[in-house]
Design goal:
- It is a single chain.
- The protein is of the alpha+beta class.
- It has two domains: about 130 residues, PDZ domain (Pdz3 Domain); about 160 residues, no CATH class.
- The chain contains ten helices and eleven strands.
- A hairpin with a 2-residue loop joins strand 6 and strand 7.
- The chain binds zinc ion (ZN).
- Zinc ion binds next to helix 5 and helix 8.
Length: about 350
């Protein structure tokens, strides 16, 4: 070994030493890690299902008290949720089965208090048939497209079959669900309303009700259909930008293509939405403060002059104004209906 070789050898050896851990660490087998991973999945899934339940609970009064604004989008709501193992990705199916008894047949995972299903269905009931028609496996939603206001469900409860008849409540028919996504966001697509897990964690119940009213307003005002043609590219941008800017970014970005309409649509959804929230029986006294909370968490959203996204400052002030307007109508015993432009 000449001098250079010796130097290289020492250098290589010392690099190896530097890269290898020198402490005696706990040895974790793959089997142990898998067991713990399953426990963590059950925790995450439990939280996800309880967030679905929370969103339904918040949406329910807003959807039932605003049917006069929903025109053709009215359907019966039965107030329960069911899921199958197959509603989740393959890697989640064991946790869904072991932790929540979800199988191939839809299984009830929540029953809304005061809903049509309350006192009739229980968590864990397995749905076998609707109006005598067997429910298919593989994640079929048994209630979807069923417009009957009364349905008879055949269920399996602890191994015993029984029939349960539910009379649905009239409500705005806008299916709402939580999406597994840590971005603080919520959006409407003209029919559905989606809240991210990030939003569910960020907002308290009253704030969620305010955001829900805003999204429902987009749907009932027909904002989405009217610019459908330009929405695709915007949605793609929204997915990237969503991280920094907060609420409704997918919606906002879709508006880029729609040009001048964007700011006024957002403003209109804030305005009409607060009426929908108030009519749902929620307190709107602190509704505007949601935008201060959003500004604090996402400072980039404060000043967005010239962009398509209305600033949190403007939204705060406009909402504060709307709160006063609604409170005045309440005090005067007037109907809570948004004012039409003159
Ligand atoms: Zn919006």
């Amino acid at each position: 070994m000449n001098h250079i070789q010796k130097t290289l050898f020492i250098l290589t050896f010392s690099l190896l030493v530097a890269c290898a851990p020198t402490m005696h660490m706990p040895q974790i087998s793959d089997e142990m890690a898998q067991g713990e991973a399953l426990k963590q999945q059950k925790l995450a899934l439990g939280k996800f299902l309880s967030q679905q339940e929370r969103l339904q609970r918040i949406a329910h009064p807003i959807l039932t008290k605003n049917i006069q604004f929903c025109e053709n989008d009215i359907g019966p709501v039965f107030g329960f949720g069911a899921a199958t193992q197959n509603d989740f990705g393959r890697e989640w199916q064991q946790a869904a089965a072991e932790g929540f008894g979800l199988a191939e047949q839809p299984t009830v995972f929540y029953v809304g208090a005061g809903s049509a299903a309350s006192g009739k269905l229980q968590k864990g009931d397995v749905l076998l048939a609707v109006d005598g028609k067997a429910i298919g496996k593989q994640g079929t939603n048994p209630i979807k497209n069923n417009k009957n206001s009364e349905i008879t469900l055949t269920i399996d409860r602890h191994g015993k079959q029984k029939d349960v008849t539910l009379r649905g409540q009239k409500a705005c028919d806008h299916p709402s669900f939580v999406e597994l996504n840590e971005t603080v966001n919520a959006y409407a697509d003209g029919n559905r309303i989606v809240f991210t897990t990030g939003m569910m964690n960020f907002a308290n119940d009253t704030e969620l009700a305010t955001v829900y009213g805003h999204e429902l307003a987009h749907n009932v005002m027909g904002h989405i259909d009217s610019k459908m043609g330009n929405a695709a590219l915007g949605a793609l941008l929204g997915a990237v930008i969503a991280v920094g800017t907060g609420v409704d970014v997918t919606q906002e970005m879709s508006n880029i293509g729609a040009g001048a309409y964007s700011q006024s649509f957002e403003g209109e959804a804030d305005y009409v939405g607060l009426y929908l929230t108030a009519r749902g029986g929620y307190s709107i006294a602190n509704a505007s403060h949601f935008w201060r909370k959003m500004a604090e968490a996402h400072p980039a959203s404060i000043h967005l002059e010239g962009g398509s996204h209305p600033s949190t400052a403007k939204r705060f002030l406009a909402l504060e104004h709307t709160v006063k307007e609604i409170n005045k109508k309440k005090a005067a015993g007037q109907p809570l209906v948004p004012n039409k432009a003159q």
